Amino acid sequence: VANIYHCFGVQSFADELAVKAGRDRVEYLLDLIGSDRVVETKPPQPKPFPLETARLKRVLHEVAQQSGWAKFKPSKGHALGVAVHRSFLTYVATVVEVVVDDNGKVKIPRVDTVVDAGLVVHPDRAKSQFEGAAVFGVGIALMSEITAAKGSIKQSNFNDYRVARMSEAPMQVNVTILPSIAAPAGIGEPGVPPIAPAITSAIFAATGKRIRELPVKGQLA
Questions:
Q1: How many CB atoms lie within 10 A of CB 21?
Q2: What pLDDT shows up at residue 45?
Q3: Measured in whole angstroms, how far is the alpha carbon of residue 149 from the centre of its chain?
Q4: Which candidate, 42, 43, 59, 209, has a CA 20 to 30 Å from the CA of 108?
């Protein structure tokens, strides 16, 4: 599932560029996406699923509104991060609130996600998928890793492959599914990719520490 690390790389680099340019990160991403248009892809997307920049910009704009991005005042150890991505034909933007204490421990008070998945037949089921994606995304960003030794994988199950516990999961997850008459698209995995780059964006804004490798654990102490 390449979208997770592709999104982390692309959105992390965009965040660094925004900082270098001295720009607001949401405004910078909107400028990067550019004008409203259909982007030609190779191989071509099926006709019901064109890549539309207007839909990508819409979820980004909406999540900025939902999260109170423009009004939020970052402080030492406390900031917001943002990321936007299209995967499995679905457009998703996420803002993550991060608190980092003096010992480098990360807490996630809030996650806001806005989704354009085309026509959604069962909104409650779709919402639960994105709530779960927030928890899973926090786990892979902060602690989950697979390592190898002597030609084999060291981890065997959840006893040594860490996932987010209740005390580590986001305290609040807000999901907005935008109304759409476009063809139905994926909801099972698109919520995960923006979480990690949004977290590391917020960590940088909160601490000045740039995270370029996941998981985050051990890099903030």
A1: 11
A2: 75
A3: 31
A4: 59
Give whole-number Cα distances, 73 to 39, 66, 76, 106, 163, in Å: 35, 15, 10, 18, 30
pTM across the whole model = 0.95
CA distance 162 to 210: 23
What angle in degrees, to the nearest 10, is found between the helix axes of 195-207 and 3-21?
30
Strands 173-177 and 78-87 come out as unpaired
- The residue type of 119 is L
Report strand pairing: 51-52 vs 38-39: antiparallel
The string of pLDDT tens digits covering residues 170-193 is 999 999 999 999 999 999 999 999
209: its two tokens? 């520490």
List, for the chain, all residue ranges whose pLDDT scores fall below the cut of 50.
none
pLDDT at 36: 97
Q: What is the pLDDT of residue 46?
A: 75
The strand ranges marked E within 2-77 are 38-39, 51-52
Task: Give me the pLDDT at residue 52, please.
Answer: 96
Q: What is the CA radius of gyration of the chain?
A: 17
Task: For residues 201 and 13, give the distance between their C-alpha atoms in angstroms, rounded to a whole number.
Answer: 10
Q: Position of tokens 């008070």?
A: 109
DSSP 69: T
> Helices 25-33 and 3-21 sit at what angle, rounded to 10 degrees?
110
